[in-house]
Amino acid sequence: MPDLPDFDWPSFLPGWVWLCGAGPGDPGLLTLHALHALRHADVVVYDALVEPRILDWAPQAEAIYAGKRGGKPSPLQRDISLRLVDLARAGRRVLRLKGGDPFVFGRGGEEAQTLVGHGIPIRVVPGISAGIGGLAYAGIPVTHRDVNQSVTFVTGHDQTGAAPSALDWGAIARGSEVIVIYMGLKHARQIAGELLAAGRDASEPVAIVTDATTPRQAVLETTLARLPEDATKVEPPGIICIGRNVLLRHTLDWQAGPKHLDPLGNRSRPESA
To answer: Where's the Tetrapyrrole methylase domain (predicted)?
Structure first.
C-alpha cells in the first residue's frame, strides 16, 4: 500500500482509544484518518460488520473480535467497553473499529461515555454509514429533490432485541417521505404493519440491500405490503429503504451499467440546475 500523503496527522499515543468507523464494507471507503489509525494501532478491537480485508492493513496489531450479532452469542456491551479501558490503561494504542459510523446505531456513544468516565482519552473518526453509502452502492440516493425533503434513519430493534416500542411509527410514517431502517429484517413484519396502519401505501417501493458495498452485495426490490415475506428470503446484515427514491435505482444502478430511463417521470434538468 502506498504511503499516506504529507499531512499533519494526529499522533496516536499510548493509552488512547480511537473510535473509528470502518464504513459499510468496501475497504476503499475508509477515511484516511482510519487508515492512519490502522497503521499505528497496537490492538484493533473490531466488530462483526468490519470487512475482514481491512484488518490486513494493521499487520502489526493484535486483533480482538468483539462482534455482536442478533440471535447469536455475543459479548456484553459493558464487557466490551471495560475491555477497552483495560487495554488503554496497559499503555496500548487501542483502535476500536466499528462497521459504518461509530455514532450511527453503533453504540460508539456508549463506549465513549465509559472511556471518558474512566479517564481514558479518546478520538472519534467518523465513517460512512451503511444507510447512506450502502444505498448509494445500490443506486439509491437517500435524498432527491423530486422525491423527498426529509429522511428518517431508524433502528430495527431496541436494547432488548425487540422492535423499538418507543418509536412513534405513526409520526414517522406521516412525516418522512423516505425511511431507512438498520437491522430491521427480523422485525420487518411488525414494522411494515405499523407503517401500513399509519397510512403508508401498500404498493410503496422498498429495497433491501444486504452486504452493502462488498462483492457479496445483493438488492431485493419489493413493496411495503410484500416486505414481511421478502425479508425472510435474505440474510443479514441488511438495510431496508422505504420510499419512492427506490425507483431511482432503475436509472442509477451504476454497477450494472448506464441506463436511459427516468422512473419518476420528470424532465431532465440541465447540469447547472
So the answer is: 17-227
Task: Quote the number of domains for the chain.
Answer: 2
Q: Which sign, positive or negative, has the C-alpha torsion 47, 48, 49, 50?
A: positive
Residue type (1 letter), 113: Q
From residue 239, alpha-carbon distances to 123, 144, 216 in Å are 28, 19, 14
Contact 210, 130 (CB under 8 A): no
| Model confidence at 162: pLDDT above 80 | no
Q: Within 13 Å, how many C-alpha atoms sit on residue 175's CB side?
A: 7
Q: Which residues are catalytic?
A: 47, 68, 183
Instruction: Report residue 125 as a C-alpha cell.
Output: 473518526
Q: Is position 41 within any domain? A: yes
* Residue 72 lies in domain: 17-128
First to last CA, the chain: 40
pTM of the model: 0.89
Give the model's pLDDT for residue 268. 47
Q: Please tell me what DSSP assigns to residue 190.
A: H
